Amino acid sequence: MKKGLLIVFSGVSGVGKGTILSQLMPMEDLNLAYSISMTTRKPREGEVEGVNYFFVSKKRFLEAVKNGELLEHARFVGNDYGTPKEYVEKMREAGRNVILEIEIRGAKQVLEKCPDALSIYIVPPSIEELERRLRERSSEDEETILKRISKAKQELKDIDFYEHIVCNDDLDKAVEEVRQIILDEMNK
User: How does residue 157 score in pLDDT terms, banded at 50, 70 and 90?
Assistant: First the structure.
């Protein structure tokens, strides 16, 4: 059995990564497995433990880092995020294509350790559109929204190391573009 791909999937907060993934995941031809990240962030409304994230205490997160249990880890807007290594490797060995939805610092860590990983970065059509989307989802206070916009402006300056950049100005088009990138890589 062919080992599955490791797909590093990133983009600024509010760009629509989750929406794109929700459409890609059921596509059987992609054979995707979503890598569930560990985080110290509190769950948002509708998020489920063990489905969206593994929500843990700061103490448990630091133990995972110390014990080498994470493929990558980073702090973002006051919370810690990391990718459990064991889950990713099990899924890849079973032939599944594992998607890591991670931020840019974590992506750099993964790509340094796994240079064969496929990397895709989703960009907004504009910063103004990104701000509108963040405000529309109504899940954060004003200070957090402003931090996310500031972070996005900085992050967009440093995405050259990603193999593929996809603009989410039209959801269906962006989903199809990401789908085709994955299929092309699977057929190499």
Answer: confident
As to burial, measured by CB atoms within 10 angstroms (0-12 exposed, 13-18 middle, 19+ buried), residue 2 is: exposed
Residue whose C-alpha is closest to residue 71's, from 137, 7, 23:
7
**pTM of this prediction?**
0.82
Set out the domains of the chain in order of their start, with CATH numbers. 6-186 (3.40.50.300)
Residue pointed to by tokens 């998607």 = 99
Tokens of 177: 């573009």
HSE on the CB side for 18, CA within 13 Å? 10
**DSSP codes, 93-120:** HTT-EEEEE--HHHHHHHHHH-TT-EEE
**32 — pLDDT class (breaks 50, 70, 90):** very high
Q: Are 104 and 98 in contact (CB under 8 A)?
A: no
State the pLDDT at residue 10: 94
Residue type, 160: D
- Per-residue exposure over 27-40, b if at least 16 CB sit within 10 Å of its own CB, e if not: eeebbbbbbbbbbb
Paired with 121 in beta bridges are: 10, 165
The angle subtended at Cα 73 by Cα 158 and Cα 86, nearest 5°, is 125
Q: Residue 72: helix, strand or coil by DSSP?
A: strand
